[in-house]
Task: structure prediction
Amino acid sequence: MKFQITLNILMQLLAKRRVTAKQIADRYEISRRSVYRYVEELTVAGVPVDCERGRYGGFRLADTYRLPAGFLSADEYAAAINALTAMNGQVQDKSVQSALEKLQGQQRSEKRELSVCGNILVDGGVWGGSDAYSEKMSVCERAVNEQASLKIDYISRTGEHSKRVIDPHLLIFKQNVWYVYAFCHNRQKMLTFKIGRIKHASFTGETFKRREFRREDIDLDFYYEKAKLVDVTLEIEKNSLPLAEEWLGIDNIEPRGKAFIAEMTLPDDGMLASKILSYGGAIKVLAPEELKLKVMAAAKKISEWR
Result:
């Protein structure tokens, strides 16, 4: 019974996105204290349930959360939902209502989000079939299009965990990474957030008026703010050329004799030496000497691991 109620609460949240403790307590004839205990168990299990207090509060499920893919096709979901909706309108049975909410919740999880803009199609998914990143992309894109505010659970590069309310204005794609340019209510200014670092995102139900900004106002060197920029010269083996081109860009690599050389400016953010080592010796540092020594020290540290 306990498991069934917990599962039903999850399905109810998937279908409605926001439910109050009173609504849950009345529906399952349990105390509000029990409601909070069930919701806590969902949170421990990894379901991103956010509790908002106040007049318009309640339990809210992140809009980026979906159940694992089920076994019905989109047409089968639609047919089943239509039939149950018609039946529920006549019968008003709790079991029918519960089944309807489960199907509606699962139907949302089956939708693969592909962003299409003009002649460009963007698949936000990752290799292996996980749609978590795609869901975040979809929510951010919808927020930009509909001028809808988002509440995000964000983890910075330093590991700082914060909850913020943002007004997404623009999606940015740079160095094979997606970012959202948004007004941050916490900091009261426009900031750039890496979509991959958004753990959960939910619509607040509020809309915003777009703030005027120019292309020049967007700092596209945001990644380098705290990183030292260094001029580097790298020698690349031919068999690793395709991967190096994806990292450094084709335009920055040119053949010189039997070798391929890249001369460019890169951020030395503490991970540059590790990035070079990840190519297994196929990229050699020619300059500067300081970076060469960092790579050698990192390689030595790896060789000493046991």
Notes: The longest strand covers residues 161-174. The chain has three domains: 1-61, 135-223, 227-303. The longest helix spans residues 74-91.
